[in-house]
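Appendix C: a fully annotated inverse folding record. The material below is reproduced so that readers can follow the format used throughout the book. The structure is listed first as tokens, followed by the designed sequence.
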């Protein structure tokens, strides 16, 4: 057991025979002189050669707890070690490397011969033998070392099981009633499977701890009378590669039928009858045990502080079944690790033989690798045994031709031990993998190679396959075992870059560094994360592919539709699908399963009706969405006939509802929380002034109470209970709207830094294994630090190092690491720029704006934890140097937004908010829309645009019938002169211009037809026609040589003002126009938009019934009529991950003709007129959704719930320039 005070010197008193080494330079440089601060002999140990195969070994005499190590160089010399690793063992065989932070740890050594470098181990080591392996040394000297090891004695009780033995511990009656059970122990084994613990109790309860394929499985079975799950069975899987003959700790804690197994997993279960260790004892057949009983050793086995092995030694309260010994014998097993691309082992074989056999066991994560090769007798070819796609292949080839090709096994790159045996006897060759045999013809052999350097083609070793990286053991040739210790001592064979007497395999997927459900796979050197369908990307699936709000999608120029949002970015919450309604306010709509109007009728015996609402997001996601939003609402409807709602003013409420806080609420939509009122009660206009709800008047006629809930802490509605529905004649109906929120408090959260010495400080950033930082900035400065967080040695920093370079730097203990991005244009242009930096155990990356992401791989070994302890500084540093001047916005660290504005309010030199968004986002205002600044963001003014919507992109359309007309009339010139002093307006604009800009879209089946007409007060006109061939033509009458003067009117549809027409124009005008017109623009005038949206304030004359239509739009107006969704899919391709994908509805019929958008720009010169038309044709399809069935209605039921029907159109476009 471990001791608290454990720092005794362990080496100084040892005799010289306790020291061993790979070699020694001379007798005076022997390992026995390698004691700290001693000058005996040559003043320390030095090997014969200084290379990576040297080591110094110490036998401590017994298993000891080791807590620290100290080193020196060789006294009075230039020989010292600058870096080293350590290994430990119980027997002097089967070594284990000391690991820290998931890496083989390299200790920092000495810089001279005399100073002492002391290192305290983060985790104590329990071992008898310690081996120090120099990794690097003074380049001007040799390997030289003196050392001391610190620790203390270690006490333990050990029992060994042979696979058919067990200890049975029986509880006494009093102890079996204990409510807490704690089992702790260590185990070691070479067998990959076996039952270690089995406990049984009443009611069919049982607990079993089983080793299966090198992993620990905890099985819990509870009786049906107490089972909390459907079948009462639970299994937890932990650990990996536990069959390595090294000690492993496991603990199980059971409290009140709850289980805590290593990682705090809690399950139901209890046992109280008996418990066996090492196997399963069957009460039905005494002495019979599981065939998979444990074969190995258990140490310090405790049950509720009872030393079970000590009791077994004393034969108290224990039954010993089979051969249990109280010690731990070690099998003679010497593994070897092929760790690098130059690793191989060459062994001599007998020549001129017509038979051979060889066997080995291997374990690896790699799918490919050469296991064995040899040359056949009399130049008959070459034999290769190698891994290919996780299978073992045996091939015999000669002169490039494959003579024999045999495959056996599959999935052999699973990290488990697998056996390979082949035999060549009397012209017959057999290959057996894990006891499964394939066979073919074989020949005779020369020397045998195990492994071979990759692509190294020499006469001795040619390797056309990948190099093998993994472990091997139990190798034999002709039934003679290969002594790897003799190979290590260079007594036999030849090798390169091997680690003999240890298996260095590790499971890089346990624990998995893949986040958000990413699937971990691995090779020998690294791991990989498959992020497919997770919604995240990156080396560890850390970063979300989705925006965090509808506001963010809107400001990327996206239109209304269904999108996946990830409200906490790289945080733990999963993405969820919402509807983004992109209006002037960006609404996020979260749907639920019960939006239909639902009728309630009286029913005897039913006193209450309960309605539940399940949302498309879970409660954690809803909480995050609501907290992030500036405003949320949900509408409630209650239609009633002799059915009271809240029973106001003084009675107990008949109806109540719950939100996410699960608190009962007795107020209705439109009222204040806690008021027990409805909307009419707040406004004082209820049907009966003595009640606070219309329905509480209890009238025998239909009325209603409806209103909006907007208290965010109570949203969303999850449950409603309706109480007054059991009386004769009571009828009611309810409807709950979707949850709707707008505003993103995080997206526009900004601070302005106006002094270089100013900064904001926040709590320490915790991103030990993965960290992502994103923000927007704008500045006119040339440099400055965006943020910095320091530790004792570690740090993380992002800075603007020049006007066109951003630097992301950090140090996790391996030295400073930098990623730089240089931009082609300056970043100090006072426009918003985006920065995202990420650091994980595999790589670091930096992105600036939409430039390619710059990535750098992290070191394969070394520190991986980022350990910070100071405050996080934003906009500056602790030293108040290189401070940032400008704005920082939407700063997020691991998905958490820092409230810059709130902190800026109390910080000198920093102001909350940051104006000036149009310079960056003004491009989103299209079609002549004008960007208008707001405190938090901007808006688009569509006054002088033919379009509407948040970005002036929504077409204003109307369907015309023959005879319909819209005329926009300008003032006469003399009226303009009279009003010269008045404020100019669009009504007087464009009266005399040298050029006109005309744009519109249309859809029609009519040809020929008059589309657009402009006239002047001087009997001039310009007409745009569509001829019978579907081509645009123009007709005009011009009296001035240079100007189109005194414009009178712009007409779409039929012209009713009598004028002298060209005969062709007159003929077409008589027919009128039938079809759709959209986006009509004449210079800064939008006549169709004025007629539809502002008829009373605009000089327009409308003939016929003009109604706004969606005929010119390519998407439905009803957001839920057809689902527009951003699909959660594999984003490994180049698709825009934020683009909505429309589920198109196929057409039933096609319109004849097409849709043409026309842009006309006319420039009048002295004797010439130039006109240019942009012609756009769209193939158009149309379908109609069928109406759903109507709900059951009573004759006087004053409302219905018909689903909307929507004509959907899908268009293909062709463009022509005329």
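Designed amino acids, in order:
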């Amino acid at each position: 057991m471990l001791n608290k005070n454990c720092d005794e010197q362990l080496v100084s008193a040892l005799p010289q025979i306790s020291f061993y080494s790979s070699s020694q330079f001379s007798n005076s440089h022997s390992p026995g002189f390698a004691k700290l601060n001693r000058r005996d002999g040559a003043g320390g140990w030095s090997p014969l050669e200084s290379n990576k195969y040297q080591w110094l070994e110490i036998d401590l005499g017994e298993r000891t707890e080791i807590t620290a190590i100290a080193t020196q160089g060789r006294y009075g010399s230039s020989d010292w070690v600058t870096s080293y690793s350590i290994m430990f063992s119980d027997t002097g065989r089967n070594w284990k490397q000391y690991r820290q932070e998931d890496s083989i740890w390299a200790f920092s050594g000495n810089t001279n011969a005399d100073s002492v470098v002391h290192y305290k181990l983060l985790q104590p080591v329990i071992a008898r033998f310690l081996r120090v392996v120099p990794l690097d040394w003074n380049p001007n000297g040799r390997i030289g070392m003196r050392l001391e090891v610190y620790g203390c004695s270690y006490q333990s009780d050990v029992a060994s099981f042979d696979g058919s033995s067990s200890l049975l511990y029986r509880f006494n009656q009093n102890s079996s009633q204990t409510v807490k059970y704690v089992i702790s122990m260590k185990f070691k084994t070479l067998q990959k499977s076996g039952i270690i613990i089995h406990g049984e109790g009443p009611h069919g309860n049982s607990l079993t701890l089983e080793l299966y394929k090198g992993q620990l499985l905890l099985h819990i079975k509870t009786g049906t009378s107490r089972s909390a799950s459907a079948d009462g069975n639970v299994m937890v899987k932990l650990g990996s590669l536990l069959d390595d003959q090294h000690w492993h700790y496991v603990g199980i804690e059971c409290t009140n039928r709850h289980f805590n197994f290593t990682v705090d997993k809690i399950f139901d279960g209890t046992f109280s009858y008996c418990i066996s260790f090492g196997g399963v004892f069957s009460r039905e057949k005494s002495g019979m045990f599981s065939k998979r009983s444990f074969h190995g050793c258990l140490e310090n086995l405790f049950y509720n502080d009872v030393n079970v092995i000590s009791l077994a030694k004393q034969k108290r309260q224990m039954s010993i079944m089979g051969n249990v010994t109280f010690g731990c014998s070690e099998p003679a097993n010497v593994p070897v690790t092929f760790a690098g691309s130059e690793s191989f082992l060459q062994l001599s074989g007998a020549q001129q033989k017509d038979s051979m056999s060889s066997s080995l066991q291997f374990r690896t994560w790699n799918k490919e690798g050469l296991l064995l090769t040899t040359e056949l007798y009399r130049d008959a070819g070459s034999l290769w045994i190698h891994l290919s796609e996780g299978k073992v292949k045996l091939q015999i080839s000669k002169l490039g031709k494959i003579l024999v090709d045999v495959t056996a096994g599959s999935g052999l790159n699973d990290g488990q031990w697998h056996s390979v045996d082949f035999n060549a006897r009397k012209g017959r060759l057999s290959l057996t993998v894990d006891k499964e045999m394939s066979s073919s013809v074989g020949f005779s052999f020369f020397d045998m190679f195990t492994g071979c350097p990759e692509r190294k083609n020499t006469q001795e070793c040619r390797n056309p396959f990948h190099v093998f990286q993994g472990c091997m053991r139990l190798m034999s040739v002709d039934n003679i075992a290969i002594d790897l210790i003799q190979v290590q001592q260079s007594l036999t064979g030849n090798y390169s870059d091997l680690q003999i007497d240890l298996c260095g395999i590790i499971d890089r997927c346990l624990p998995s560094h893949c986040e958000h459900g990413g699937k971990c796979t691995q090779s020998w050197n690294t791991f990989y994360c498959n992020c497919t369908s997770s919604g995240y990307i990156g080396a560890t699936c850390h970063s979300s592919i989705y925006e965090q709000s509808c506001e963010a999608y809107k400001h990327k120029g996206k239109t209304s539709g269904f999108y996946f949002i990830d409200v906490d970015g790289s945080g733990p919450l999963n993405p969820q699908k919402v509807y983004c309604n992109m209006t002037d306010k960006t609404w996020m709509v979260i749907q639920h399963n019960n939006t239909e109007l639902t009728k309630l009728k009286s029913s005897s015996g039913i006193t209450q009706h309960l309605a539940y609402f399940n949302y498309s997001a879970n409660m954690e996601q809803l909480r995050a969405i609501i907290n992030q939003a500036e405003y949320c609402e949900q509408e409630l409807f209650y239609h009633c006939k002799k059915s009271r709602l809240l029973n106001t003013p003084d009675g107990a409420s008949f109806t109540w509802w719950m939100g996410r806080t699960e608190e009962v609420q007795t107020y209705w939509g439109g009222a204040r929380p806690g008021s027990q009122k409805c909307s009419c009660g707040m406004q004082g206009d209820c049907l009966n002034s003595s009640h606070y709800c219309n329905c509480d008047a209890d009238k025998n006629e239909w009325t209603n109470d409806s209103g909006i809930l907007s208290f965010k802490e109570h949203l969303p509605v999850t449950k409603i209970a309706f109480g007054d529905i059991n009386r004769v004649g009571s009828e009611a109906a309810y409807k709950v709207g979707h949850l709707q929120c707008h505003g993103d408090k995080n997206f526009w959260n900004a601070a302005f830094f106006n002094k270089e010495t100013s900064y904001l400080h926040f709590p320490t950033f915790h991103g030990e294994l993965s960290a992502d930082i994103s923000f927007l900035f704008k500045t006119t400065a040339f440099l400055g630090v965006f943020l910095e967080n320091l530790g004792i040695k570690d740090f993380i920093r992002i800075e603007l190092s020049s006007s066109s370079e951003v630097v992301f730097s950090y140090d996790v203990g391996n030295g400073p690491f930098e990623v730089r991005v240089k931009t082609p244009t300056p970043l100090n242009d006072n426009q918003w720029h985006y920065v995202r930096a990420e650091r994980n155990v595999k790589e670091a990356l930096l992105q600036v704006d939409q430039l390619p992401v710059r990535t750098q791989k992290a070191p394969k070994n070394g520190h991986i934890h980022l350990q910070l302890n100071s405050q996080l500084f934003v906009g500056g540093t602790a030293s108040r140097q290189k401070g940032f001047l400008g704005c920082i916005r939407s700063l997020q660290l691991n998905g958490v937004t820092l409230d810059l504005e709130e902190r800026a309010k109390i910080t000198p030199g920093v102001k909350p908010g940051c104006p000036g968004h149009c310079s960056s986002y003004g491009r989103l205002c299209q079609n002549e829309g004008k960007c208008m600044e707001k405190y938090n963001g901007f808006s688009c003014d569509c006054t002088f645009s033919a379009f509407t919507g948040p970005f002036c992109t929504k077409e204003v359309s109307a369907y015309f019938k023959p005879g319909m007309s819209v005329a926009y009339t300008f003032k006469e010139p003399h009226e303009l002169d009279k009003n010269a002093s008045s404020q100019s307006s669009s009504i007087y604009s464009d009266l005399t211009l040298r050029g006109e800009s005309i744009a519109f879209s249309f859809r029609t089946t009519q040809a020929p037809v008059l589309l657009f007409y402009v006239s002047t007060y001087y009997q001039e006109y310009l007409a745009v026609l569509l001829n019978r061939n579907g081509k645009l033509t123009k007709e005009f009458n011009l009296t001035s040589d240079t100007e189109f003067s005194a414009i009178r009117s712009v007409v779409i549809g039929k012209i009713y003002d009598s004028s002298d027409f060209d005969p062709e124009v007159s003929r077409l005008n008589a027919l009128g126009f039938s079809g759709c017109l959209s986006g009509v623009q004449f210079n800064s005038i939008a006549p169709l938009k004025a007629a539809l949206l502002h008829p009373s304030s605009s000089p327009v004359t409308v003939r016929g019934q003009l109604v706004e239509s969606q005929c010119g739009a390519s998407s439905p107006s009803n957001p839920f009529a057809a689902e527009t969704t951003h699909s959660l899919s594999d984003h490994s391709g180049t698709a825009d991950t934020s683009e909505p994908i429309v589920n198109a509805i196929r057409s039933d019929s096609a319109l004849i003709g097409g849709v043409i958008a026309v842009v006309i720009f006319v420039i009048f010169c002295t004797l010439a007129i130039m006109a240019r038309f942009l012609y756009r044709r769209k193939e158009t399809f149309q379908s109609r959704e069928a109406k759903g069935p109507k709900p059951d209605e009573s004759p006087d039921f004053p409302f219905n719930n018909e689903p909307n029907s929507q004509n959907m159109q899908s268009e293909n476009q062709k463009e022509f320039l005329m």
